[in-house]
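INFO batch 0412 | record 1 of 1 | parsing
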Amino acid sequence: DSFFSLSRKFNVSVDVLKANYPYATLYAGSLITLKPEETNQILMSEPLKGLKTPSRFSIPGIHYKTQKNTAIASPLEGEVIGIRHLKGFGRAVFIKHKGALAILASKGYENIFVSYGYQLKREQNLATVRKGYFVHFFLLKNNSFISPESFFVGG
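INFO prediction complete | emitting tokens
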């Protein structure tokens, strides 16, 4: 990994990483310790328990395939700022949280229980998806898509 890739992966500036690491080059197995106030960490839960599938898309995200009709939970606390069609992915729920935007999209939404302006809590049910459909989970921060997986915490 590079400072830049760690910065994107963990949502911490390159300058903060370099200030907390004594060498100019990263070495395998090295540890960088950060104070909580130095991070912009977003704490999330997985939106569903399902089979993760490899991505065939060029943007970072997680793609689940439902094995049965499945409840979708909000991965984070935030406000629903939109529900609309996302080309190639189906209907999408957009959730704003601390400058980040979580997007949950599926062509298999059966019911969506939230609407514009709704305040969600982490792990609160927001929709159901029919069996056999994909659910796509994207996270956008600072106008860049980043992988959501590094922000998961235990439920």
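INFO post-check: The chain has a mean pLDDT of 86.
INFO record closed
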